[in-house]
Amino acid sequence: MKEVSVILFNNFETLDAFGPVEIFGRLPEHFAVKLYSPEGGIVTSSPNVSVVTEPLTAFNAEEYILFVPGGIGTRELVHNESFISKLKSLAENAEYILTVCTGSILFSKTGLLNGKNATSNKRVFQWTQLESPEVNWIKKARWVKDGNIYTSSGVSAGMDMTLGFIADILGYETAKTQSDQIEYDWKEDSTWDPYAELH
Amino acid sequence: MKEVSVILFNNFETLDAFGPVEIFGRLPEHFAVKLYSPEGGIVTSSPNVSVVTEPLTAFNAEEYILFVPGGIGTRELVHNESFISKLKSLAENAEYILTVCTGSILFSKTGLLNGKNATSNKRVFQWTQLESPEVNWIKKARWVKDGNIYTSSGVSAGMDMTLGFIADILGYETAKTQSDQIEYDWKEDSTWDPYAELH
What are phi and psi of B99, to 5 degrees? Predict the structure, then answer.
């Protein structure tokens, strides 16, 4: 059993987090989803969903997948050194790290993506390069895997990446069954990305 | 400006609600999303997301879209006469009613779907017919529109229905722009449904 440690913050993007949470949560024999935020308590997403979280001080998982969604709230957090430092130490002990959308930009501030392949939201792709030029940002990708780090493109892409991650660690059939059960047309090919040219 | 009045309950399915909420919430000039539950306060989804809601007694919207997700929690609520009666009165004054997954089964207990076309989750399709045989349940459909009532197939289908609904009332381009922005491969054809045969 691995904990999926979802790091939330005010103005996280709703679907970035809750698409993947839906999928992980359907496999309770493998994953226990837990929601955190820097201070704990209630944090509010864009758009306007208030959820209950544990504070990062309560973090005590041993085997865990660090999960970082994106959203407009990342614009402020990239400058929060104390948060980035905490995120870095959580990442250094994580078995896997998964980010969705601008979550990869937030995570890149830890320096742990430097020299690695990663992707992000295609609408703000210039911002990725400005914030962290030492990352090898790949524009055309639904998601990118580099070692134990998975980064996805914008919002909906987090669901495809999560299914891809589950296929990698639990096998294709487990992922395919989940996508069929939620009637989701899983993009199984991580290079599928019409949005790279659109935005 | 219309309120999207999302009716939550314990063990609602996370993505049933928050896929559509993501989409509606990105159009704040047209929609204001508000989360309710029978008693208000914190309700917890499958899987395990605790969200803050208003009680139904605080409901005072005038122009609103009643939105009913599904989930395992509907199994208990279909037998809750007081809730069904409240749901019926909310529906009678709603401009539109949208349901996702087994939300249509819950809503069918109001009697307001009798004689109308509707769909639901394909994995529990037999249950739809047992609960409400007077509804014209359509198996092969991503979503179904009958008058001002939209019902969708399972979980992910709620996002396609929501985009279809937005196309109907605000125009195709508005819906398409939203789906592109969240990098979502919108199934624009409401009859697209490979899951009808799969489950």
Answer: -125, 150
B157 vs A183: CB contact, 8 Å cut-off?
Answer: yes
Query: Rounded to an integer, what distance in angstroms lies between the CA atom of residue B50 and that of residue A34?
Result: 11
Residues of chain B contacting residue A52, judged by C-beta atoms under 8 Å apart: 42, 50-52
Q: B26 CB near a chain A CB, below 8 Å?
A: yes
- Model confidence over A109-126: pLDDT tens digits? 999 999 999 999 988 888
Successive 10-residue mean pLDDT values, chain A, 199 residues: 97 97 97 97 94 97 97 95 97 98 97 97 88 95 98 96 98 97 96 89
Whether residue A51 contacts residue A8, with contact meaning beta carbons closer than 8 Å, is answered with: yes
- Whether residue A183 and residue B154 make contact (CB cut-off 8 A), yes or no, is yes
Which among A65, A39, A62, A61 is positioned nearest to A52, based on CA atoms? A39
Write the CB contacts of B125 (distance below 8 Å, at least 6 apart in sequence). Answer: B137, B139, B199
Burial B116-141 (b: 16+ CB within 10 A, else e): bbbbbbbbbbebbeebbeebebbbeb
Span B7-13, average pLDDT? 97
- Closest of B67, B88, B69 to residue B13, by C-alpha: B69
Q: Tokens standing for B136? A: 């014209």
Q: CA triplet B148, A156, A29: central angle to 5 degrees?
A: 100
Asked whether the beta carbons of B75 and B130 are under 8 A apart, the reply is: no
Q: Which of B33, B46, B155 is facing A183, going by the closest CB pair?
A: B155
pLDDT digits (tens, 9 = 90+) for A83-97: 999 999 999 999 999
pLDDT tens per residue across span B44-64: 999 889 999 999 999 999 999
Q: At which residue do the structure tokens 């509907």 appear? A: B74
Angle subtended at Cα A112 by Cα A109 and Cα A117, rounded to the nearest 5 degrees: 100
What is the C-alpha end-to-end distance of chain A, expressed in Å?
A: 39
